[in-house]
Write a structure and sequence with these properties.
- It comes from Peribacillus simplex.
- This is 3-isopropylmalate dehydratase large subunit.
- The chain is of the alpha/beta class.
- Among the domains are: 147 residues, Aconitase, domain 3 (2-Layer Sandwich); 148 residues, Aconitase, domain 3, CATH 3.30.499.
- It has 15 helices and 18 strands.
- The radius of gyration is 20 Å and the shape is globular.
- Bound molecules: 3-isopropylmalic acid and iron/sulfur cluster (SF4).
- Iron/sulfur cluster (SF4) binds next to helix 11.
Length: 424
């Protein structure tokens, strides 16, 4: 019987060649990632009681992103603790104020196909977009990983999600993944892997593939994998990775628990309505809903191609007077490139506010929280009650194009009327 990508990566990580779904694997971890909020300040006590020696300081990556820049004294304390800890442990890789961890570890070359990556954040699965088995773990579990470099995992079954056909004008990978989550349900893939494949997925840029993998956890999935191809190799080379790339793929006779098959040419822009990510409707069903804030950013959809789309829609226009529009590039690297391309000027002239790369507004931690009764159209991945601030606020999720179109109208809007033909 053939193997899925998840089975192969965990087989390699455990040294047990015949591993299959359902087996318990004792695995060696390639990268252990922590961020400020669920990182050093939580693990330090137990870590020290158990010896306080890192298994490998080259494989532990810490990113301060949730508390940046701090909005409260507690956040400032956490940030200081994280920075001091990184220094004390003499970490080779500590990043601060660079952007959300998932984007930063991908850009900095830590994510590679075939690697096993564990992080103290649920969206660690984003690394699956480059073909890594990546998943979130709790801080307590991370203590063991930090000390030994090992842990155990149950090998997940895999759901194959196939998208074939031409993605239509105004439709983006965000729309594909929202539709997938709607059908799976927010707990429909619990402890299973998603594997995205098909001709529409092959056509996607790396930026757009990350959106699919990032949101796998919103269906409860352990991870969301995409087979690496030449685009992945090109991405890694552009980040300075010179090692041979593990072109891992599933075997043609691999066994799947379920297969979903879609025709992308039939899909229109989608919106997830409050307060669950699977509460998804076509944009036509929610068009006209008034908003107070628009948020274009996060590790889900704050990448360069997202900012380019928004700039194309907002160029020469003004955002609605009734709203504020926050734009948060997903990394400093993206910020600088967007600046060079004149994108930040276009967005600022349209009336947007450009915030520094951070998790801040996405999770309601720092700059950009919402008040009671406020409604947000967001390009991020979660719309749970209280997600961006007040528990009496509402968050809608959509593609960057839907977000930018909504900024113009001050009401949820269909992006197809604003996007130039041929841009998608
Ligand atoms: C703060 C952290 C627990 C959280 C996560 O794990 O995903 C955050 O990054 C999020 O997106 O909700
Ligand atoms: S989803 Fe938001 S809060 Fe979570 S890591 Fe990404 S940007 Fe940060």
């Amino acid at each position: 019987m053939g193997m899925t990508m998840s089975e192969k990566i965990l087989a390699k990580a455990s040294g047990q060649p015949d591993l299959k779904a359902g087996d318990i694997a004792w695995v060696k971890v390639d990268i252990a990632m922590m961020h400020d909020l669920l990182g050093p300040w939580l693990v330090d006590g137990a870590f020290n009681r158990l010896g306080g020696q890192l298994f490998d300081k080259e494989k532990v990556v810490v990113v301060s992103d949730h508390c940046t820049p701090p909005a409260t004294v507690q956040q400032a304390d956490i940030l200081k603790f994280t920075r001091d800890w990184a220094r004390k442990q003499d970490l080779s890789y500590y990043y601060e104020f660079e952007g959300p961890c998932h984007q930063v570890i991908a850009e900095r070359g830590h994510v590679r196909p075939g690697r096993l990556i564990l992080g103290t954040d649920s969206h660690t699965c984003m690394a699956g977009g480059l073909g890594a088995f990546a998943t979130g773990i709790g801080s307590t579990e991370m203590v063991g990983v930090l000390l030994t470099g090992e842990t155990w995992l149950k090998v997940p079954e895999t759901i194959k999600v196939v998208w074939d056909g031409k993605i239509q004008h105004g439709v983006f990978s965000k729309d594909l993944v929202l539709k997938t989550i709607k059908d799976l349900g927010h707990a429909g893939a619990t402890y299973q892997s998603l594997e995205f494949s098909g001709s529409s997925i092959k056509d996607l840029s790396i930026d757009e593939r990350f959106v699919l993998s990032n949101m796998a956890v919103e269906a409860g999935a352990k991870t969301g994998l995409i087979e690496p191809d030449e685009k992945v190799v090109e991405f890694l080379r552009s980040k300075g990775v010179t090692d041979e790339v593990d072109m891992i793929s599933s075997d043609s006779d691999a066994s799947y628990i379920r297969t979903l098959h879609y025709n992308a040419s039939e899909l229109e822009p989608q919106v997830a309505c409050p307060h669950e990510v699977d509460n998804v409707h076509p944009v036509s069903a929610v068009e006209g809903k008034a908003v107070d804030q628009v948020y274009l950013g996060s590790c889900t959809n704050g990448r360069l191609s997202d900012l380019r789309i928004a700039a194309q829609i907002l160029k020469g226009k003004k955002i609605s007077k009734n709203i504020r529009c926050l734009v948060v590039p997903a990394s400093q690297h993206i910020w600088m490139q967007a600046n060079r391309e004149g994108i930040l000027d276009i967005l600022t002239e349209a009336g947007c506010i450009i915030n520094m790369p951070s998790c801040g507004a996405c999770g309601g931690f720092t700059s950009g929280v919402i008040g009671a009764g406020e409604v947000v159209m967001s390009s991020s991945n979660r719309n749970f009650r209280g997600r961006m601030g007040s528990t009496n606020g509402e968050v809608y999720l959509g593609s960057p194009a839907t977000v930018a179109a909504t900024a113009i109208e001050g009401k949820i809007a269909d992006p197809r009327k604003y996007l130039l033909q041929g841009v998608r």
